[in-house]
# Entry
Amino acid sequence: MTDVIFSALLGLLTIERFAFMLLGVSVGLVIGVLPGLGGIAGLSLLLPFIYGMDPVAAIAMLIGLVAVVPTADTFSSVLMGIPGSSASQATVLDGFPLAKQGEAARALSAAFFASMFGGLFGALVLTGAVLAARPIILMFGSAELFMLTLFGLSTVAALSGGNLAKGIAAACLGLAFGMIGAAPATGEYRMDFDTLYLSDGIALVIVGLGIFALPEMFDLLRNGGSIAEGQKLGKGWFQGLRDVVRNWWLSLRCAGIGALIGAIPGIGGSVVDWIAYSHAMQTTKDKSGYGKGDIRGVIAPESANNATQGGALLPTLLFGIPGSGSMAIFLAGMILIGIQPGPAMADRNLDVTYTIIWSLAIANVLGTALCIILAPQISRLTLIRYSLIAPFMVMVICFAAFQASRSFWDLVALLAVGVLGVFMRRFGWSRPAFLIGFVLSLGAERYLYQAVQFSGLEFLTRPLVLVILALTLLSLWAGLRKSSAAVNTEGSVETSRAERMWPQIAFGAFLLAIFGFVVLEGLKNSYLAMLFPVIVGSLGFAMVLLVMAAQLRGPVKAGTANFDTEANATDRGPWPFLLWFTAFIAGVAVVGFFAALIVWFVVFLTVVARTRPLTTVLLTAVACGFILVLASFLNLVFPGGLLQEMVRLPWPFR
Amino acid sequence: MTMITRRAALGAAAAVPFAAGAARAQAPVSFAGQTIEWIIPFAEGGGSDVWARFLAPFVSRHLPGRPNVIIRNIPGGGSITGANEFAQRARPDGLSFFGASASTQLPFLLGDRRVRYDYANWVPVLVSPTGGVVWVHARTGISSVEQIARLRGQELVFPGQTASGLDVVPILALHVLGLNVRFVWGMRGRGEARLAVERGDASIDHQTTPAYLTQVLPMVRAGAAVPLFSYGVIGPNGQVVRDPSFPDIPTFEETYQMLHGRPPQGPAYQAYLACSVAAFAGQKPAVLKRETPPAIIAAYRAAFERVVADPELIANRGEVLGDYPQAVGAAADELYRVATTISPEARAWVRDFLAQHHNVRF
# Structure
């Protein structure tokens, strides 16, 4: 066995194959840095070139990309407050405050080293587990998976912000959004308004970008300056490394969580960062720093998300079951080079498996090194006036959202979720709780239904179910123990006391209406598809009522329910910038994405950023050139508008 | 390889920008310097995407003028979105063609109200058949298909995705056979379903050819799984015959005969047959719009005949195409016709059956 391991390493170390791995790592780096774009977009870029390639070189390239994305996506999470991909959402909570405090360098280096550690740990787990993982994976049936979704939902307690009822309501809202589309038990379409677009549900990338990125962007634009206050990047590169070493035990635990959750098909990597984050919180005595820039809040999710990749390869290789969206494309790449996943990967094709593992390990180290080399340059972005960066962010975020289903409606969905995000942020309804609910929604419903169908209520007596149940209760207890110290995901309550209560109460009424709608829509379905929306809708409704009851008692008596970050605002709020964004989407609807982008760039830069004409033209040209290169490699046609309906234009305008 | 083609095509495009369009009226068809889009109604990764990406370089090689052939993914609505868009938007100029699949064919046959396309308006240039096997776990107490009668006394559990998708084929097959099957829905792929059977939560399942060969066959060899029947392929005279990938596994018709002592018939069987051919033996077609100029259609058909005979393709087809004969020319027409038509009675029967037993709304 050791000779297989080392011959796989030697096979990888030719100049040509190494060059391809470097290519994969480089593409992964760029894609990871761009907010919203992750492994799926990156692998889609490389897929057209796979057929006919040397298999080892192809694997090295694909894995190189997969491995580096969760390292590189830290840049935009830490520097911009925008999740670089769905794997780094939790990193934003503490990484971005650190950057604002001028400690970007420390946060980034801690994140990169934690990522590398997690990645290597994942590769190590894969090395050992590939021979023994089959029985372990088979242990996780629908019942165990249901319990795991409950475990994931239990982290809401820790992430609910200052007010638990608000946190639960936010999670219910996320659960309700996740139910849009086909019901798992019966295939009935729920809340789809009879449209094809909504029948697939809303894509995670759109929800993630809408709920986090857009509100953050509007906020930064309002401040008018650059991201890093005080114009400092800070030093602290070694400080970051020291932070990881000092927290090695936390890092190891989180890497373990990442590898395990990644290996279990059905939960997926998108909640791993949140689970790791809340685990870090629950196991820390002094929680007061979380959400304000605690380095452990960076180390935990970053250790976990790289380890997830190693774990996720297990079901992909052994069972042909992709553990995540990017693994599905990796699988396609393997089939194109003539390798069919299956039991043979732990037997006849063991050399291929070890090639994959070595690629994973080497690419993690390479990726970390590159990130550290590039960090000082990339970090400079935080010193630039944000109004110069914002148009690029709008472009990339829309492009990423549009990857979801290649439809104009992706942009509309992004706008809608973005508006919701603006209000949730303003009134202190935990957005992480919303996101966790959204990600776990269908899983919770699907696995509960299947568990009951397979083994009745007896599923509750399965040993592994009981173990996970105990862990869930422990996590709940840890999260609720001192709920006043729970992380303030939306800012601190003290600074957000409002005298005028009506905006909050109006938003509460809006949420009530949504939950009422969820219940009514749920009731239209057959029993099995009705149960979940009705329960979630009713629970959410009750929680919102609780919050509103407190709010109606007046500004002081409302306590933690009184939360309005705009209470003391003196400017016009985020509205002007929301209008700018809406104008862009409206422009797309009329003249199509590319033409709208050009016009919008020029106008925004001139009016908001007040750049000189030459700079404006230059920046617009750079943006257009960049997006064209990306789109041509992906064979993309941009979303069209009315103009495209009427006349046939050449690419990229068509 | 694709990289070289792309570069060559880009160079050619720079040299003769718009010549091909003007010349096409009189000269023989040539796509030199053009980019042809092969529209796949799914996201990257997955069966149809891999199928098209595997074939694309060969299509590029054999179309006149060696155009650049790229895959354009239009995902959504379980392939209905992409099919609708091709039907409504694509121009009949041969610069785009469409790769359909079972998920496109079944909603069309069953009359899904979201369908805006009509197979009668398309012309097939290739049909790539595939197959599937229904199998049970040895825990059910049988060790070979000859003992299938023993399954009658017990309730089998089938883990499926949705009753309106590909699983409609095993639903109808098992109903016609008269086995007592409880369906548990919501699986997120055939892989998860297979795992549920392996784990012991469920007992009966079906897998498509590549997954059966790599994942289930080792279990069969170990005595843990027993194949019951394959969906078969369409033979030269239109009859269902054994699948070349599994010559030892009886077809559904043979297994029915084994159990009941007579061949299957009646509206339920007709409905099964229509859906089964649409979902397995008669997919995946690559199609052009019918109003495309005949010369272009002819060029495509000739190109695909050369594609499937290409020695490099035959050597590398592996599990992407499997051992199935790739239908082109008249054979493709015939298979396409069978796979995209259903008698009004059979359609009404399936719709009624699925609505009554599985809550499917059309």
